[in-house]
Amino acid sequence: MSKLGNLGARLHRGEVGYDFVGNRKIWYGISILITITAILGLTVRGLNMGIEFQGGAAFTTPKKMSASVSQAERYAEDASGHDAVVQKLGDGSLRIQIAGIDTDKSDAIKTKLAKDLNVSSESIAADLVGPSWGDQVANKAWEGLAIFMVLVVIYLAIAFEWRMALAALVALIHDITITIGIYALVGFEVTPGTVIGLLTILGYSLYDTVVVFDSLKEQTKDITKQTRWTYSDVANRSINGTLVRSINTTVVALLPVGALLFIGGGFLGAGVLNDISLSLFVGLAAGAYSSIFIATPLVADLKEAEPQMKALKKRVLAKRAQAAAQGEPAESQVTDRSDDDYDDEPEDAAAVVGPRTQPASRNRGRGRPSGKRR
Q: What percent of the chain has pLDDT over 70?
């Protein structure tokens, strides 16, 4: 852990780093491939919508049932003529969900189930959801998601700028698509808990993104007044400076969620936890990935399309080429050098990452993109 802490400090100071922005085409390609896979899974398999969205009935048997999940599933399908989803609960009872049935037939299905399971009809609890109520719940879920996205874009456009808001929106859509695609591929039931999990992970994904954006906004003040760094260089430094923080918060969040999913849902048989824990687990991982590999590189692409940033990049690359022609030592694009003036020392365009090789100046802090003294 001490090594990780030392690495985080060195990343924050710019002594080491990785060229995330320079390799953005690789990350874009990986994200496109994962997204296509998720969309194909959604198209081919579809979502296993719960009765809260489709309407139907859910029957809960008494505790410590002798019948297995497969037997109960077969009995339910024979009694209703529809597909059934059966979950074994922690107390040994079975939860049998049958979507899309007419609620008027629930009593007959309940009686047939009780006979097949060899229990009394009164001992089986039934929860009924009408199709109109299911449609209303589904519409409210989509409305809530849409309102959330709109508010996020408006806030980020005001707090930062529209390019960052657009990049954050793309990252959020990326996270939602992957999470929903995993649900389709795995076949877990989609319930209101799933929607709650989605909204939770979107907020978490935005947290990581905003941390990087805040650092980037601070460090790019008056960036056009120097000729050492391009916008992509500073974006890269912002990612590296917050990298360990993002990893730490993601791992800490994934541990309890993983316990819910793999221990609670898998070993202990608490299947009702699967709907929310899977969305949280997949969404947290996808959100951390998109904050680092999608949102910030996309902002760099959008910003460097501006005429001012194009001119800055041209000046920086020309200065680096001149330095290389003169045989002067190259400086890392992500190394956080803090000299008196950005123009004091030239650098070439190579993104070689490593420790500092020159002594720091006496007056540290002046001329950094953030304007801070250190």
A: 78
DSSP-assigned beta bridge partners for residue 128: 57
Domain boundary among 73, 98, 129: 129
Tokens of 259: 């316990």
Which of 94, 129, 164 is a domain's end point? 129
Phi, psi at 218, each rounded to 5°: -70, -40
Q: How many residues does the chain have?
A: 374
314 falls within a domain? no
One domain for residues 140 and 110: no
pLDDT grade, residue 14 (50/70/90)?
low
Q: Which phi and psi angles does 332 have, rounded to 5°?
A: -65, 145
Same domain for 11 and 118, yes or no, is no
Rounded to a whole number of angstroms, the distance between the first and last alpha carbons of the chain is 26
Partners of 127 in beta bridges: 58
Task: Name the domain count of the chain.
Answer: 2
Residue 83 amino acid letter: D
Sequence-distant (≥ 6) Cβ neighbours of residue 307 within 8 angstroms: none
Mean pLDDT score, 110-118:
85
Higher pLDDT, 352 or 94: 94
CA 58 to CA 124: how far, in whole Å? 10
Please report where in the chains the tokens 């959330």 appear, as a residue.
Answer: 148
pTM: 0.70
Residues 104 and 123 in one domain: yes
Q: What is the pLDDT of residue 346?
A: 37
The predicted pLDDT at position 114 comes to 84
Whole domain around residue 17: which residue ranges? 2-49+133-303
- Selection from 85, 73, 80, 56 nearest residue 117 by Cα: 73
In the predicted model, is pLDDT for residue 368 greater than 90? no
Task: Please give the backbone phi and psi of residue 65, each rounded to the nearest 5 degrees, phi first.
Answer: -75, 140
Burial of 150 (0-12, 13-18, 19+ CB in 10 A): exposed
Structural element, H or E, at residue 163: helix 162-186
Sign of torsion over alpha carbons 325, 327, 332, 338: negative
Residue 270 pLDDT grade (very low, low, confident, very high; cuts 50, 70, 90) = low
Residue 33 belongs to a domain? yes
For residue 48, what are the β-bridge partners?
189
State whether the Cα torsion 145-28-180-37 is positive or negative.
positive
